[in-house]
Design brief:
- By secondary structure, the protein is of the alpha/beta class.
- The protein has a single domain (19-93), classed as Alpha-Beta Complex (Conserved hypothetical protein from pyrococcus furiosus pfu- 392566-001, ParB domain).
- 28% of the residues lie in helices and 29% in strands.
- The chain contains three helices and six strands, in the order E-E-E-H-H-E-E-H-E.
- It has helices spanning 33-36, 41-54, 75-83, and strands at residues 14-15, 20-25, 29-30, 60-65, 68-73, 88-93.
- A six-stranded mixed β-sheet has the order 1-2-6-4-5-3, covered by helices on one side.
- A hairpin with a 4-residue loop joins strand 1 (14-15) and strand 2.
- The longest helix is centred in the middle third of the chain and has 14 residues, at 41-54.
- The radius of gyration is 13 Å and the shape is globular.
């Protein structure tokens, strides 16, 4: 893994009509309390090891809510990247359900 490309960052931005892939600051992603209660530390530890070896393979899903980004899917991946000290994480932006 090159040092210039963080393990949790894709290093690129792509656009498709409904989805947008981008790297976001880990600190800028809000995790709702209800979702936080599902956290399993053993899963985080296992994912952190995998990410360290192979990088993040699947971006987390976030939606924009005003000026903040809200986690939709990928709590364990997000927490694993936090545990590794990553500042950026690859995200796929999704639309909020109506």
């Amino acid at each position: 893994m090159p040092e210039s490309s963080p393990a949790c960052s894709s290093g690129r931005e792509e656009k498709t009509p409904l989805l947008e892939n981008k790297d976001l600051a880990v600190a800028d992603i809000y995790v709702p309390a209800k979702r936080r209660r599902t956290l399993k530390q053993a899963t985080v530890d296992s994912l952190a090891e995998s990410i360290l070896e192979d990088g993040l393979k699947v971006p987390i899903l976030v939606r924009q809510d005003g000026s903040r980004y809200v986690l939709v899917e990928g709590l364990h991946r997000l927490e694993a990247c936090k545990a590794l000290g990553e500042e950026l994480i690859a995200c796929t932006m999704v639309q909020a359900r109506s």
